[in-house]
Design brief:
Number of strands of chain A: 10
Protein name (chain B): ABC transporter permease
Pfam family, one (chain B): MlaE
Radius of gyration of chain B: 21 Å
Structural class of chain B: mainly alpha
CATH topology of the largest domain in chain A: Rossmann fold
Helix content of chain B: over 70%
Number of helices of chain B: 10
Mean pLDDT of chain B: 93
Shape of chain B: elongated
Oligomer: heterodimer
InterPro entries (chain B): Permease_MalE
Shape of chain A: globular
Organism (chain B): Winogradskyella damuponensis
Structural class of chain A: alpha/beta
Strand content of chain A: 15-25%
Distance between the termini of chain A: 35 Å
CATH superfamily of the largest domain in chain A: P-loop containing nucleotide triphosphate hydrolases
Number of strands of chain B: 0
Low-confidence stretches of chain A: none
Keywords (chain B): Membrane, Transmembrane, Transmembrane helix
Number of helices of chain A: 9
Largest sheet of chain B: none
Largest sheet of chain A: 6 strands, mixed
Distance between the termini of chain B: 33 Å
Chain lengths: 255, 245
C-alpha cells in the first residue's frame, strides 16, 4: 500500500499541495483527478520522489520514502514503473531497446534472457512486430503501449501513469485503459493514474481521489461517483451534457 | 544572485558527473556514439576551416611584410606561431562551442522537454552521469581534433604561400622549423584539455537545467554558445598569463 499523510508542497510563495492524506491499495487502479492547476502533476511527482515536499510523509509498503538511504531509494525506484504523458521513450533507441533499458540497467540477465522478456512484454501490449521500429515511427497509441511495456518489463510493484490517454482517439484510449487495468490485476500491483479523462474515471476508477486547489476534495470509486452530492465533484465530472445524462440514467436505473 | 546560484548548480553538476556511475555495458555504446557525434562528426568542418584560415594567415603575413629587410621565412614562422598558439586551440574551440555545444544543449534540452530525463530519474539512474559523462570522455579526444587543425592550418599556409606566389616552399618550411619551442605545444594542449572540459560541461548544464518547451531549447542553445565562448576567452587569457606570462 502507498500511504500519503498530510502532504504539503510549495514553489516559492505558491502553496500547491495543502495537506493531502490518502492511500492507494494493491491490485487496484487508483485515479487522481481534478482540474488543470489542481496539483495533480505535482502530487504525482512527489509520489515518484521527483519533487521534495516540505511536510507530511509518503510510505511505500510501510517504508517512508524521505527516511530511506540513497541505496534504499534506488532499490525502491527499481520497483517503480512510470508511463509519462508524452511516453518519454528514448528517441535514440529502437522500441525493443527502449523496453530492454530497465533490464540492462538493473538486472544481470544475459542478452537472450532480456530479449525473451522484451518479447513477452511487447506481446502483452499487442506489439509483437514493433521491435526494430524507432519511437518516431510509431503512432501515439503505439508509443503509449511501448511506454507501458517499458514500465512493466522489470516486474514493478508500483505503476504510475501521467495522463496515459492524452492525445489519443477514444478507441485507443479505451484500449490503453483496459490494458492498464488488466496489467494491474494480472501482476497484482499498485497503479496510480493521473487523469482528466472522464471515460477512464468511469471505466477503471476502482479508487478515485479528486483534488481541488491542492486539497483532497473527494475520495471514492467509479461506483460511488455517480451517487455523490459533492458539488465540487459533480461540477467537474458532470460538466458535459452527455455525462449529466449518463448520471441521470444511472441513478434512475439504480432507483 | 542568480549568477551565484547558476555557478553553484554548475559545480554540483560536475560532482554528479562522476557520482554513481552507470553500468559499463550501458556506458560503452554511449561513449562510442558521442565520439562519433562530437569528434568524428566535427573533423570535416575543422579541417576545412583550418586549411583556409592557415592560408589566409600566410597571405596576410606576407602582404604585411613590406620591408625588404624582413626575411621571407617569417611567413612560415608567423603562420606556425599563430596556428599553434591561438588559432587551433582557441579559435577552433569557439567554433566547436557553436557546433558541438549547441548539439549537446539541444539534445539534452529536448530530452528534458520530452520527459526522457524524468524517466531516467524515476528509474533511479544518475541522469547527469548517464548523459554528461560520455560527452566528457568523448571530448578527451578533442586534442586529436586540434592536432589535425594545427597540421592542416600550417599546410594551408604552405599551399597559399607557394601557389599564391608569396614565397618558396623552402623559405616557408624553414620558418616553420625556426626557433621551435616545445613548451608551446604543451601550452596549446593544456588549453585544449581545459576547453574540452568547458565544451562538455557548459552546454550540458544549459541543456540539463533548462525549463520550458521547444522555444526554450533554442534559447538555451544560444545562451550555452555565448557562455561557452565567454568562458573559453576568459580561461584562454588566464592560462596564457599563467603559462606564458
Amino acid at each position: 500500500m502507498i500511504e500519503v499523510k498530510d502532504l504539503h508542497k510549495s514553489f516559492g510563495d505558491a502553496h500547491i499541495l495543502k495537506g493531502i492524506t490518502t492511500s492507494f491499495e494493491k491490485g487496484k487502479t487508483n485515479l487522481i483527478i481534478g482540474q488543470s492547476g489542481s496539483g495533480k502533476t505535482v502530487f504525482l511527482k512527489c509520489l515518484l520522489g521527483l519533487f521534495e515536499y516540505e511536510e507530511g510523509s509518503i510510505s511505500y509498503d510501510g517504508k517512508i520514502f524521505s527516511k530511506l538511504s540513497p541505496n534504499e531509494k534506488r532499490a525502491l525506484r527499481a520497483e517503480i514503473g512510470m508511463v509519462f504523458q508524452g511516453s518519454a521513450l528514448f528517441d535514440s533507441m529502437t522500441i525493443a531497446e527502449n523496453v530492454m533499458f530497465p533490464l540492462r540497467m538493473f538486472t544481470k540477465q544475459s542478452k537472450s534472457e532480456m530479449e525473451d522478456r522484451v518479447n513477452v512484454v511487447l506481446n502483452r501490449v499487442n506489439l509483437p512486430d514493433a521491435h526494430k521500429k524507432m519511437p518516431s515511427e510509431a503512432s501515439g497509441g503505439m508509443q503509449k503501449r511501448v511506454a507501458i511495456a517499458r514500465a512493466i518489463v522489470n516486474n514493478p510493484k508500483y505503476l504510475f501513469c501521467d495522463e496515459p490517454n492524452s492525445g489519443l482517439d477514444p478507441k485507443t484510449a479505451i484500449v490503453i485503459d483496459n490494458l492498464i487495468q488488466e496489467i494491474t490485476d494480472e501482476f497484482n500491483i499498485i497503479t496510480v493514474i493521473n487523469s482528466h479523462d472522464m471515460n477512464s474515471v468511469m471505466e477503471i476508477g476502482e479508487k478515485i481521489v479528486f483534488l481541488k486547489d491542492g486539497l483532497k476534495a473527494w475520495e471514492g470509486s467509479n461506483k460511488t461517483i455517480f451517487k455523490t452530492d459533492n458539488e465540487v465533484v459533480t461540477d467537474f465530472v458532470y460538466s458535459s451534457n452527455l455525462f449529466k445524462k449518463v448520471r441521470k440514467m444511472y441513478l434512475e436505473e439504480s432507483d | 544572485m542568480i549568477y551565484l546560484h547558476n555557478i553553484g548548480t554548475y559545480f554540483i553538476m560536475i560532482k554528479d558527473i562522476f557520482r554513481r556511475p552507470t553500468k559499463w555495458s550501458v556506458m560503452k555504446p554511449l561513449i562510442l556514439k558521442d565520439i562519433d557525434d562530437l569528434i568524428i562528426g566535427s573533423l570535416g568542418i575543422v579541417a576545412f576551416i583550418s586549411f583556409f584560415v592557415g592560408g589566409v594567415v600566410a597571405i596576410q603575413t606576407s602582404l604585411n611584410m613590406t620591408s625588404p629587410l624582413m626575411p621571407k621565412y617569417l611567413v612560415g614562422f608567423a603562420t606556425r606561431q599563430s596556428i599553434i598558439l591561438e588559432f587551433a586551440p582557441t579559435f577552433i574551440s569557439i567554433i566547436m562551442a557553436g557546433k558541438v555545444g549547441s548539439f549537446i544543449t539541444s539534445s539534452i534540452g529536448t530530452m528534458r522537454v520530452t520527459e526522457q530525463i524524468d524517466a531516467l530519474e524515476v528509474m533511479g539512474i544518475n541522469a547527469i552521469n548517464y548523459l554528461v559523462f560520455p560527452k566528457f570522455i568523448a571530448l578527451t579526444l578533442y586534442p586529436f581534433v586540434i592536432s589535425i587543425a594545427m597540421f592542416l592550418g600550417i599546410l594551408g599556409g604552405l599551399v597559399a604561400c607557394v601557389y599564391g606566389g608569396y614565397g618558396t616552399m623552402e623559405d616557408y618550411i624553414e620558418g616553420v622549423k625556426m626557433d621551435f619551442i616545445p613548451f608551446h605545444f604543451i601550452y596549446a594542449f593544456v588549453k585544449t584539455f581545459v576547453f574540452a572540459f568547458l565544451l562538455a560541461t557548459i552546454p550540458s548544464y544549459y541543456g540539463y537545467f533548462m525549463k520550458g518547451g521547444a522555444l526554450e531549447v533554442g534559447k538555451a542553445s544560444t545562451t550555452s554558445f555565448v557562455w561557452t565562448s565567454v568562458m573559453i576567452i576568459l580561461v584562454n587569457f588566464l592560462l596564457t598569463s599563467l603559462l606564458l606570462g
